[in-house]
Design brief:
With 250 residues, the protein is an alpha/beta fold. It contains eight helices and seven strands; from the N terminus they run βαβαβαβαβαβααβα. It binds nicotinamide-adenine-dinucleotide (NAD).
């Protein structure tokens, strides 16, 4: 029996990168999965590949209307939501004085308000299910400062506080809320879509990782599955750092 039998999960930003790997692993573990993203073609292709236990829906996490539609469709197709992986994210890395206020707002809208919208949308559905696990994808940049990362770090730090508050508010309803804090993971965000300055910055950072390498995205899926599963039934309001030991080294 898979670790996620009986779970009904929504994963955001799941068309590529870590979200895609989480969706693949969730289905393997027996969950029903709603793959969501703003990139419809790869998102739909992934859901098709995953078979009858997955569907795709367009979801821009900044839109409350789209969140309502996704939760309604999830309930109709698979039943009440038990699991939410708030994975969609965005990062622009430049010195603070080179970032515009629109850049800062974009980070807050996608990386923070997007998560607020998701939690507010699924909590009534989790009440119907009688339990829930919300996994907010933060970053090592949610617990440290980083040169060129002011907008990204600020938004990810906000996710940490939000997660703890939600864990306190909803614990009595059997809804757990936690963060996963990846280090450097091989995805389009840190490779194909990253600008040369970020790639150089990450190369320097990689030298300080005790495990001596970046992670494959699948290596983050294990801790996410743990938080989604009943094996973590007494884990709430915390952050699991998945960084090859980087944070303890600095
Ligand atoms: N890659 C890393 O090294 C790293 C490290 C720490 C944390 N993270 C975090 O992990 C998460 C996943 O990152 P990734 O590396 O897989 O990135 P990625 O860029 O490969 O994938 C992110 C996905 O989010 C989607 N997305 C962007 N804006 C969206 C929006 N408004 N609504 C819905 N979807 C949207 C994108 O279309 C994309 O498919 C992010 O929250 C990121 O901040 C990544």
């Amino acid at each position: 029996m898979g670790m996620l039998e009986g779970k009904v999960a929504i994963i955001t930003g799941a068309a590529q990168g870590m979200g895609e790997k989480h969706a693949i692993r969730f289905v393997k573990e027996g969950a029903k999965v709603v793959v969501t993203d703003i990139k419809d073609e790869p998102g739909q292709a992934l859901a098709d590949k995953l078979g009858p236990n997955a569907i795709y829906m367009h979801l821009d996490v900044t839109s409350e209307e789209q969140w309502a539609a996704v939760v309604a469709k999830t309930e109709e197709v698979f039943g009440p939501v038990t699991t939410l992986v708030n994975n969609a994210g965005y990062g622009k890395f430049l010195p603070m004085d080179m970032l515009t206020s629109a850049d800062f707002e974009r980070h807050i809208k996608i990386n923070y308000i997007g998560i607020v919208n998701g939690m507010k949308a699924v909590i009534p559905s989790m009440r119907k299910a009688g339990n829930g696990s919300i996994i907010n994808i933060s970053s090592v940049d949610g617990v440290r400062g980083a040169s060129t990362g002011s907008a990204y770090c600020g938004a990810k730090h906000a996710v940490e506080g939000l997660t703890k508050s939600a864990a306190v508010e909803y614990g009595k309803e059997n809804i757990r809320v936690n963060c996963i804090n990846p280090g450097i993971i091989k995805t389009p965000m840190s490779e194909a879509d990253a600008d040369p300055a970020l790639i150089e910055f990450l190369k320097q950072m990689e030298k300080g990782i005790p495990l001596g390498r970046r992670a494959e995205p699948e290596e983050v899926s294990g801790p996410v599955v743990f938080l989604a599963s009943d094996d973590s039934s007494y884990v709430s309001g915390t952050s699991i750092i998945v960084d090859g030991g980087y944070i303890c080294h600095i």
